[in-house]
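User: Sequence in, structure out. Go.
Assistant: Echoing your sequence, followed by the structure tokens.
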Amino acid sequence: MKMFNHSQSTEAGNVAPLRGWLILFFLVVLVFGLASLNVSAKPPAASGHSPAGYWLTDDGDAAVAFAPCRGDAATVCGVIRALPGIRKDPTLANYASELCGLPIIWGLTFNPRRNRWVGGSIVDPETEEVFSVTVWVEASILKVHAYEGVEAFGETIVWTPTPASDFGCEAK
């Protein structure tokens, strides 16, 4: 006894429309799924997440300029370009030749999942200690998170935007 007769139009006729709706459904899911991905044609430096520019350190002693590192456009570095702290502490001028142009942050790469620049290093110019660093821009300020070993046990400081200047570093 035959359970299914392929020649019956009602059975075979129901399969084709169902297959069409399934294909349409998967195409719609695929299109909306791809559209919801956070894919940007712009590199991070052009998307508003970049720390590029001048930032005044938390103590106000130095202005650090962030830009792509030499020879590697995918990484960001920070270099001391001004010493506004000389106004409040004139003895800082004694160290200008050593501090001006000093790279204090290097090797940062953008992590789109975390929306942060990670994997870099920062040096404390006073102690010459080197720490791991993560930075991110939040509400027009730069958060600088330095740590040794475990990121969760680090310290976050806030740097504020400042106009480009070479105050205290004019001779460099």
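User: And one key feature?
Assistant: The radius of gyration is 28 Å.
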